């Protein structure tokens, strides 16, 4: 008998047809004499809906109360799934975060799991129950409800798998694994069989949506083998483990939601840079890769997220109105794979390809498992496709 | 400084405009230097919506899981109200049933409050918080979520008022008090200033919707003075207390959702009555006032709720198909007031009036504070109006 954790995301639970598919997937695992713990997110767009309702009451809703509000989404999912499994004739029991003993830090809206008291989960497993746990939520030492931030249900699943020493931790979603690049855009994208924790971390941080980075950090720390798969088929997915394989590029991901900003002013004064930096940070905008290209005039460029563009333009009209500005929509293309830093072949081929295409490069970053290039958004698809062809397929 | 409990029902919380009215009502009480505890129901039709969703997954959803599901409704209300009060600049904190220390029996869907540990509520009051507690829900000794059944939020409010020895317990809804009969139907209905617990209990049991009967039972037991009022105006409502006033009819209520059933069979056999009774009870139908009018043939009549009619008709087609049946939609009119049992005048006038109108009476019941008459639904409005005219206005 094995102990397994199955995690299902919100889009896998969006309606009753999908709930039935999920229930049958759970039953398949349970019937193979497994002890089964299921972790679920809120159904479909529930969380977004609750956030919208709260914003109608307050521009910046109290964080403690937001956690009370948002945690109802997963509570609805667990009870519905338990109702369905019981109707299908199976022993099932739902547990909220606090009932499942998930203790977190006190930081509302982005709490960290500190400790799991597995007593209740283990008792219910011994009673042959399918144990359905609300993802994304826990309880702090004041007995207040906390939530783990976006993607927190992945973290719940892996943390429970670690605490209970599960044999398998499956993360199901509407894609069946991690691909060599986005299969919705590049048809020759290949599914990756195995990835190391560090490779997966780099992919998550660069925007691959299969797994949340905090969940991968916990998996790495406690050596939890993660198996990703699709809720809607039985294809073999991607396994994330601690294996170190041969040096190669595993996947190429791209983030298009970035803007390169250039600000100019006729004279240069170091205080202006301080003022700029402070104004951005105090408005929640984090400028990355900020460089100043001149000491005679002020000629500074940096990157911001597309979602911060509105706020930034307001600042330009008010506090930062002295500057002349220019905006360029850029993309960061990241090649991820173990040993890239020391792989001359990858670096050389990438630079050659960029050179042949006469591509403007705004920034290049090279790390242990990752090579990132910033270029104009409009040429980024072509570059990604050529890099994929040259280095992967 | 007084400690007060304010309870708001679902229709008072149905949208953001109403939430703002409720918030301002709460603030008025808080600004008068009161310690304020607010108990809320789920918003508008939330609970009905969740029940409908559960029924789509199972004809008879598991009761433990229904309580997990339904309790999210009040959890959404408390967090939204706290978000709004904080935005308006007031200290507020939400507490779910388990956070508020509301311990109940193990009976899911109709748990009884057994004990309230007021520690957390008192701590939050000392911190000058408006404490917003989820009505209708609690926790049992297994740390499972329970709910108190329909109208349970009234019970939560009165139980907290009793436990915390509150000076006032206000129950707000969309009507401002208890009337001498339904003011939506009989325009001359008068608001009642004061009622005793026993009178209110009889009215609640007969279907008056202002207060739930279990809440009145607790109020009576712990001598909690209840003040009813409207969320949407400042009219004086009805006070429910232990005063015993002069013998008189205070209110006349009517329940139209009843069916008189008559079943016939050519021969009589006592076993048939047993079988009938057992079949009804095991299908959740409670037959009231069952009588058999013959010993040569089987000729039995009894009353069932209109909501059980569908189930009953299915039984007639299957297990009970040997019987000939007839159905009549009937109403129970109840006159409620202290001392009715010994008030010859009330009984005489009622019977005279029924006689003058040649009304079919199916049943008369006389109790300490109540006189009930069952008659055909279609004549019941006329009779109620005449009784109100004769005995109240």
Core attributes:
homodimer, 393 residues, alpha/beta, 6-stranded antiparallel beta sheet
Can you walk through the features of this model?
The model of chain A has no long low-confidence stretch (mean pLDDT 90). Chain A is of the alpha/beta class and 393 residues long. The two termini of chain A are 40 Å apart. Chain A is globular. The first copy, chain A, contains eleven helices and 18 strands. The interface between A and B is large, with 37 and 37 residues.
Radius of gyration of chain A: 23 Å
Name the largest protein-protein interface in this structure. Answer: A-B, 37 and 37 residues
Order of adjacent strands in the largest pleated sheet of chain A? 3-6-2-1-9-11-12-10
Query: What number is the mean pLDDT of chain A?
Result: 90
The share of residues in helices of chain A is 25-40%
How do you describe this structure in short?
Chain A is an alpha/beta fold and 393 residues long.
Layout of helices and strands, plus pairs?
The structure is a homodimer of 393-residue chains.
Chain A: E1 3-8, H1 16-31, E2 35-40, H2 46-57, H3 63-87, E3 92-95, E4 102-104, E5 113-116, H4 119-126, E6 130-134, E7 137-139, E8 145-147, H5 152-163, E9 168-173, E10 194-196, H6 197-205, H7 213-222, E11 226-230, E12 239-241, E13 251-265, H8 270-282, E14 288-292, E15 298-305, H9 309-317, E16 324-336, H10 344-356, E17 361-367, E18 370-376, H11 377-391
Helix pairs in contact in A: 2-3, 5-7, 6-7, 10-11
């Amino acid at each position: 008998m094995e102990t397994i954790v199955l995690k299902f995301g919100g889009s896998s639970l969006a309606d009753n047809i999908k709930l039935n598919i999920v229930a049958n997937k759970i039953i398949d695992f349970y019937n193979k004499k497994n002890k089964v713990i299921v972790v679920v997110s809120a159904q479909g767009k529930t969380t977004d809906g609750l956030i919208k309702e709260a914003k109608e009451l307050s521009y910046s809703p109290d964080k403690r109360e937001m956690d009370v509000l948002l945690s109802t989404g997963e509570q609805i999912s667990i009870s519905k799934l338990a109702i369905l499994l019981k109707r299908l004739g199976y022993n099932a029991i739902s547990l909220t975060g606090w009932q499942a003993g998930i203790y977190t830090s006190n930081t509302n809206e982005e709490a960290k799991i500190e400790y799991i008291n597995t007593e209740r989960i283990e008792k219910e497993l011994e009673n042959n129950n399918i144990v359905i746990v609300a993802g994304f939520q826990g309880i702090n030492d004041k007995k207040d409800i906390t939530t783990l931030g976006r993607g927190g249900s992945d973290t719940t699943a892996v943390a429970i798998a670690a605490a209970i020493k599960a044999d398998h931790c499956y993360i199901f979603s509407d894609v069946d694994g991690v691909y060599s690049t986005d299969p919705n855009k590049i048809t020759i994208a290949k599914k990756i069989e195995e990835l190391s924790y560090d490779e997966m971390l780099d992919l998550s941080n660069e925007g691959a949506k299969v797994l949340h980075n905090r969940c991968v950090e916990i998996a790495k720390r406690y050596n939890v083998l993660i198996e990703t798969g699709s809720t809607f088929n039985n294809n073999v997915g991607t396994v994330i483990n601690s294996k170190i394989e041969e040096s190669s590029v595993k996947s190429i991901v791209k983030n298009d939601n970035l803007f390169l900003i250039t600000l100019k002013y006729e004279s240069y004064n170091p205080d202006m840079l301080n003022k700029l930096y402070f104004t951005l940070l105090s408005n929640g905008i984090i400028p990355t890769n900020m460089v100043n290209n001149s000491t005679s005039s002020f000629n500074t460029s940096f990157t911001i997220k597309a979602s911060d563009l509105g706020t930034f333009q307001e600042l330009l009209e008010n506090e930062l109105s002295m500057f002349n500005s220019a905006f360029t929509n850029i993309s960061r293309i990241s090649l991820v794979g173990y040993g890239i830093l020391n792989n001359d072949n990858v670096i050389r081929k990438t630079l050659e390809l960029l050179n042949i295409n006469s591509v403007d490069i705004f920034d290049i970053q090279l790390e242990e498992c990752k090579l990132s290039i910033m270029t104009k958004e409009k040429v980024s698809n072509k570059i990604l496709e050529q890099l994929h062809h040259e280095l992967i397929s």
